[in-house]
């Protein structure tokens, strides 16, 4: 299953007129591939991610997630689709201070109506996948910045999403830790078959992507395969 945006236009009120954030954007992200979306601040990257996450409804165009067109879906149906099919890795991990690394993941099961206790084996599996099985009992203040971001990634995968959306995951990390996080996202994309979109203004690590798409003034330059 893939993520597809077709002829998407998004505008915001701007005084007497409207500001175009996305201008007829089309993007297809096949399962098991990583597409890096790059561009300067204010270019439309965050708007693209929000539309792909079904957090914002575009003015025109269609968004299809895991074979489901989202046009016309109610808020409740969109929320259910996000829980089932979309994992979001936020720029800041925003982990709950009182919870351990394992509990951060188990909360996702609770939000999906499942028993957190029964979800613990799944949480441990994912922490092991991101190299943190031995840190499962630690709380955020006991983890490094890179480790917190790894918990953030594992949490996004807790409900086995089809689509993985990643927002500037290396912005608060040094080069080596940032590279390790990008390598992890790339590996998990291949292993778990997610359609992954990585939004970043830093081109340092985008060589790991299958395709690179550039956003300028709301327009998306067609995604091109990387040469690596």
UniProtKB/TrEMBL annotation:
It comes from the Bacteria. It comes from Micromonospora solifontis. GO terms for molecular function: ATP binding. Signal peptide: none annotated. The keyword Kinase does not apply. Keywords: ATP-binding, Nucleotide-binding, Transport. The keyword ATP-binding applies. Gene3D superfamilies: P-loop containing nucleotide triphosphate hydrolases. Residues 3-228 form the ABC transporter domain. PROSITE patterns: ABC_TRANSPORTER_1, ABC_TRANSPORTER_2. InterPro entries: AAA+_ATPase, ABC_transporter-like_ATP-bd, ABC_transporter-like_CS, ABC_transpr_LolD-like, MacB-like_ATP-bd, P-loop_NTPase. Pfam families: ABC_tran (PF00005). This is ABC transporter ATP-binding protein.
């Amino acid at each position: 299953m893939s993520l597809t945006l077709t002829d998407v236009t998004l505008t915001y009120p701007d005084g007497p007129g409207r500001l175009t954030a996305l201008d007829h954007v089309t993007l297809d992200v096949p399962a098991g591939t990583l597409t890096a979306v790059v561009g300067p601040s204010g270019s439309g990257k965050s708007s693209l991610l929000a539309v792909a996450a079904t957090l914002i409804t575009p003015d025109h165009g269609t968004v299809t997630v895991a074979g489901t067109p989202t046009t016309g879906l109610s808020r409740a149906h969109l929320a259910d689709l996000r829980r089932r099919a979309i994992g979001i890795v936020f720029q800041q991990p925003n982990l709950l201070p009182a919870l351990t690394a394992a509990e951060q993941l188990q909360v996702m099961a609770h939000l999906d109506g499942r028993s957190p206790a029964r979800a613990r084996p799944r949480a441990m599996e994912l922490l092991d996948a991101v190299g943190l099985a031995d840190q499962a009992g630690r709380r955020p203040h006991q983890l490094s910045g890179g480790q917190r971001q790894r918990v953030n990634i594992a949490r996004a995968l807790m409900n086995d999403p089809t689509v993985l959306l990643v927002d500037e995951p290396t912005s608060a990390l040094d080069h080596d830790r940032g590279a390790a996080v990008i390598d992890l996202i790339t590996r998990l994309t291949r292993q778990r078959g997610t359609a992954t979109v990585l939004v970043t203004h830093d081109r340092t690590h985008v060589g790991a992507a299958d395709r690179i798409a550039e956003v300028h003034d709301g327009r998306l330059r067609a995604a091109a395969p990387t040469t690596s």
